[in-house]
Amino acid sequence: MLDQSQGYVTDDGRKIGGVVMEMKNITLRFGGVEAIKDISFDIREGEIRAIIGPNGAGKSSMLNVISGFYHPQEGEVWYRGRKRPPMKPYQVARQGIARTFQNIALFEGMSVLDNVMTGRLTHMDSNIFRQAIWKGRAEREEVENREKAERIIDFLEIQNIRKTPVSRLPYGLKKRVELARALVSEPSLLLLDEPMAGMNVEEKEDMCRFILDVNDEFGTTIALIEHDMGVVMDLSDRVVVMDYGKKIGDGTPHEVRNNPEVIDAYLGVSHD
Amino acid sequence: MLYREAGDFKTSYVADSQTFPIAFDRWRYYAVLAVAFLVVPFLVNDYWVNAILVPFLIYSIAAIGLNILTGYCGQVSLGTGGFMAVGAYACYKLMTAFPDVNIVIHIILAGGITAAVGTLFGLPSLRIKGFYLAVATLAAQFFLVWLFNKVSWFYNYSASGQINAPERSVFGVAVTGPNVEPWAMYMICLVFCFACAVIARNLTRGTLGRTWMAIRDMDIAAEIIGVNPLKAKLTAFAISSFFVGISGALFFAVYLGAVEVGEAFGIQKSFIVLFMIIIGGLGSIFGSFAGAALLVVLPVFLKLLGVDLLGWPTDIVAHIQLVIVGLLIILFLILEPHGLAQLWRVAKEKLRLWPFPH
Fold first, then answer.
1. Residues A8 and A59: beta-carbon distance below 8 Å
2. What's the Rg (C-alpha) of chain B?
């Protein structure tokens, strides 16, 4: 068992810090259906945490609980050592939690740059009158945030499409723009809902590289849902495995891979 | 050949995010402003001002207002006429209650009052969307017109139920009332229209504009990156109503001079402004001007062509006008939902490569 207050050191020598977010006995029901049953796990500073499981296991519901779309009937969410009261999604965002969606949720009518700039909203606070005049503080703020946005655009290698309307981009690039929008808010916790869904091998490799780079360069804590086992095993430091709303495994990729329950859930088990 | 951005390099983010990033556009914009402010006032006569220029400027302000709400924030509103009436009656009450205060301040305050009323009627937008919101704003339209008809305090208990603009002047020149010169009418509308357009453009290219567009394009994603949906929608209602209120105040005080609410600010006003932004282009300030220009000039043009030139009866021409406007709306909705502004954008992109398209 890991020590709660101390971190640990990964195989590749990265130091993982204390607990950032802790889910305690979360139960989420939709009418009579229990989407999540009594699940507890934690996410530590600087780690890449994967949530895996077969379809309908409740992974996305779990992410939606973290980002404030769903409010669990039972259980507590602890963030940075404090119990979090039920919050609206935009309040969660202001606490430094950013996310991407399984099916891309970009602003189709806007350019890539505008999409990324919207990600800086939580850092911009000049009032309506200043913005109407567009001199002084509003302009300065715009430029400062533009610099931050450009840094991320540069980092994710999408400079050449910055003025392109998002609706004209291919799928793989849209995923990358969505990552840029989440990343530009300088989140302390980044949630990625199937960042590699529907991509070919090359695009997956790119995305993996970006996720590792983000973690490495900005020290961002990442929680991700993914179906591609190879990717999950390579990327993540610790893995939570869910099946039918229950947690059936939790540990390093190696531990999880050898967990008989996980093997049953993924490969099926003969009932004779 | 003439129109290109080659060699027009930006070295700062300020230069890159200006309204007209291409030098040619920028100079044309200055030229248009110079003509509008320095040349047109000396040339205009009564007919041009009353038939075309002043209605165009006033409708442009209203269209910019509605475009902020519908085009940028995605909230359909059919209450524009009602909000224009709020601006008109607020202006009237202020003018008669404080005769010594400058009319410009009254018009701005009328915009502010309309913004407050608009925000109030915007409250349901958090719960209802699309058609249902349109119907809710339609209720605002009918309620406001009814209110200004029924409560005689609003028209100072006058026997006719009309409101009449008393004479007020700016810098010693009358801009309202019976003795107003055409050029003065034109100038005050132009100044307001210019200021509104600049403010609207600044708001829409900055943080607030991105917040509105985020709500319009995908409200769930907007919320997840930290947009408070209630605040975003209500600011859109407030700013939009502010502009619509100013246009209503100008429409009453400067253009018509005497107003009967049901006639001047009925449901057809709401529709005509909505048509302007659909034809002109949703989510574009330029589109608001283009749509207003088309719908103001079209009836005048048809009247010149049909009645004066070809000698057709007036009612036939009026009906033809309805048919043409309806047809235009259907065509634009099917073929180019982003309106004249998009056609203009495409033309510019083509022109940029012309005459060597490859």
1. no
2. 21
Q: Indicate the pTM of the whole model.
A: 0.89
Nearest Cα neighbor of B144 from B115, B112, B117 is: B117
Q: What is the pLDDT at residue A131?
A: 83
Domain shared by A192 and A175, yes or no: no
User: With an 8 Å Cβ cutoff, is B219 touching chain A?
Assistant: no
C-alpha span between A54 and A35 (Å, rounded): 13
**Cα-based distances in Å from B1 to B27, B32, B350, B353:** 16, 21, 11, 8
Residues 186-215 of A with CB under 8 A from B: none
Q: How far apart are CA A248 and CA B16, in angstroms?
A: 53
Instruction: Identify which of B76, B78, B102, B81 has the alpha carbon closest to the alpha carbon of residue B91.
Output: B102
User: pLDDT digits over A60-85, tens only?
Assistant: 999 999 999 999 999 999 998 889 99
Chain A's closest residue to B239, CA to CA, is A128
pLDDT score of A1: 40
Average pLDDT of span B186-196 = 94
Output the pLDDT for position B340. Answer: 87
Which domain covers residue A46, as residue numbers?
Answer: 1-96+188-272
Q: Does B211 touch chain A (CB under 8 A)?
A: yes
Q: Is the dihedral of CA A119, A124, A126, A127 positive or negative?
A: positive
A163 and A199 co-located in one domain: no
Measured distance CA(B223)–CA(A101) in Å, rounded: 13
Helix axes B54-66, B285-302, angle to 10 degrees: 140
Q: Concatenated DSSP letters for B190-254?
A: HHHHHHHHHHHHHHHHSHHHHHHHHHHH-HHHHHHTT--HHHHHHHHHHHHHHHHHHHHHHIIII
Q: How far apart are CA A64 and CA A76, in angstroms?
A: 14
- Of A155, A171, A186, the residue that ends a domain is A186
Question: H or E element: which one contains B316?
Answer: helix B314-335
Minimal CA separation from A91 to chain B, in Å: 7
The number of folded domains in chain A is: 2
Q: How far does the CA of residue A244 sit from the closest CA of chain B (Å)?
A: 26
Q: Which residues pair with A247 in a beta bridge?
A: A242
Q: Provide the domain limits for residue B165.
A: 21-266
CATH code for the domain in which residue B232 is found: 1.10.3470
**Contact assignment for B224 to A89 by CB distance below 8 Å:** yes
Measure CB to CB from residue A94 to each of B213, B226, B239 and give the nearest one. B226
**Do the domain assignments include residue A101?**
no
* Shortest Cα–Cα distance, A93 to chain B (Å): 5
**What span, in angstroms and rounded, lies between the C-alpha atoms of B351 and A46?**
51
Cis-peptide into B355, omega within 30 deg:
yes
CB contact under 8 A, B207 and A124: yes
Name the domain count of chain B.
1
Cβ contact (<8 Å) for B211 and A99? Answer: no
Of A123, A153, A186, the last residue of a domain is A186
Q: Which residue of B has its CA nearest to A140?
A: B14
Contact A110/B206, CB-based, under 8 Å?
no
Question: Is residue A236 predicted with pLDDT exceeding 80?
Answer: yes
Tens digits of residue pLDDT in B12-47: 878 777 778 777 788 888 999 999 999 888 888 888
Tell me the three state secondary structure of residue B109: helix
Q: Is residue A78 part of a domain?
A: yes
